[in-house]
Amino acid sequence: MKQIKHVFLLGLLAITSLHAQTQQGLGTFYHVRHWGHKTTSGEPYHPFVFSAAHRTLPFGTWVEVEFPKTGKKTIVRVNDRGPFLRGGVIDVSKVAAQELGLVSYGISKVKVRPLSQVELTDSLQTFLLKRDSLAKAEHPTPIRKKSSKKKKAKKRKAKKRKKR
To answer: Which spans does this entry mark as compositional bias, Basic residues (predicted)?
Structure first.
């Protein structure tokens, strides 16, 4: 029984150390048209907040993203799942992509490194949260009208009837 516990603990350590390593792969960014749509975590997407989508990292994890072509880095918070692009490592928000210089490239190789609690001091975390809350206050989420598929289908049917 003790051997099974040790193997399980070693497995957990292997999984957590995997996430602590730097990942390299393709990075993309969200289009502004997703503004206001819910992410997997339930938060609405906001292009002026430094957020990201990652396949495996837990929600709320702060991640440092580096774009080697420009040499720029930024810190984002994971609040969504993705990218669903083959070879994709991370999707970042529009403002994070602008800070990295990724917008003109669209899709390019990036380096992603999760920040540990030791690196994420209280003052840095406070700064990052304040940066995002100020962006939300400066750029409020627009109100979107919800259009139902049924209404659109009825309109199409009505147009077909008029043509006859």
So the answer is: 142-164
